[in-house]
Amino acid sequence: MARAKKILTDADVRRKAIKLVISHLKRKIPEDYLGSEHINNWLAEMDELLKKEEFDILEYIEMRRKLNDIIERTLDEDIRFKLRDSWYSLGKAMAKKVKPH
User: Fold this and answer.
1) How far apart are CA 52 and CA 85, in angstroms?
2) CB-facing half-sphere around the CA of 14: CA atoms within 13 A
């Protein structure tokens, strides 16, 4: 018996895109640098948010704001640019919608 395909919602698409941005961010940022505890705490908080069943866009907007604060306090220019790229990607991920068929 064939299973019915799950109908994706905008929230599903956004959550998946955000997870992808976060996984890329984790790979491109070194684990230890001056101030790394801030981004590591943020990543842990984001992982917890992504585990939630419901998708509240306001929570994700707040997390993006927090990431911007971390970027502003990051002294290492190379890391700051990498974080800024992820900040932009996170904004795009939050705006994704289900593609019409």
Assistant:
1) 25
2) 20
Please report whether residue 79 resides in a domain: yes
> Does the structure show a pLDDT above 90 at 7?
no
What's the rounded Cα separation, in Å, for the pair 3 and 79? Answer: 45
Let me know if residue 75 belongs to a domain: yes
The pair of structure tokens assigned to 30 is 């070194």
Four-residue CA torsion sign, 17, 23, 28, 34: positive
Q: List pLDDT tens digits, range 61-83.
A: 999 999 999 999 999 999 999 99
Q: What is the model's pLDDT at position 78?
A: 95
As for how many domains the chain has, the answer is: 1
Containing domain of residue 63, as a range? Answer: 18-94
- For the residues 39-43, what does the mean pLDDT come to? 96
Count Cβ neighbours within 10 Å for each residue of 24-40 and write b for 16 or more, e otherwise: ebeeebeeeeeeeeebe
Whole-angstrom Cα distance, residue 45 to residue 59?
A: 11
